Amino acid sequence: DAMVIQNPRYQVTQFGKPVTLSCSQTLNHNVMYWYQQKSSQAPKLLFHYYDKDFNNEADTPDNFQSRRPNTSFCFLDIRSPGLGDAAMYLCATSRDIFGGGASTDTQYFGPGTRLTVL
Amino acid sequence: AQSVSQHNHHVILSEAASLELGCNYSYGGTVNLFWYVQYPGQHLQLLLKYFSGDPLVKGIKGFEAEFIKSKFSFNLRKPSVQWSDTAEYFCAVTPRGNNRLAFGKGNQVVVIP
Prior knowledge:
Chain A has strands at about 5, 10-15, 20-25, 30-35, 45-50, 55, 65, 75-80, 85-95, 110, 115.
């Protein structure tokens, strides 16, 4: 089945040690998103790619970066993880990003990667 | 920026009971509204959405939601829940013209057989 895949499902890293989370999709969607969800909080958009165009949310810390080498893959890099970065990281995709109501704007989510920082 | 409020984070009810989850948003312009559901161990998936037209929207699995513009609300309802409706439910909003979702904190719903 076409889907959004995130690897690994669980990631443990040490304080300050760079970590990369991976997302891939078989939907051939133009847009890929990264959300951060801390415990008992709402998922929060970090950034998204529309094709190769990167769009950072204004309040996303500089510690978080992203790469999209091709349509199928998108990576979240945390350069120096702190204890406060422990969270579930969700990847999502959509065909379009126009927000006009079309079904092509619907976002499809992956299962998430739970990051623990020791 | 838009924001979303969901109350009663934990809801416990028996099978066949009715469910209503409140959602209020804050944004000055036109919005698109969504309810997502996350079943235990699964990913977020779209339950229903509202963009325009009839403010009463019907989604999958017998769920419906009503958009009341004057109250900035988009409450989710199901007349008779089943054990399989045990899940976390998230309300979300995007401003019309972009696709950046703002989520509420979610409602953890447990249905007791």
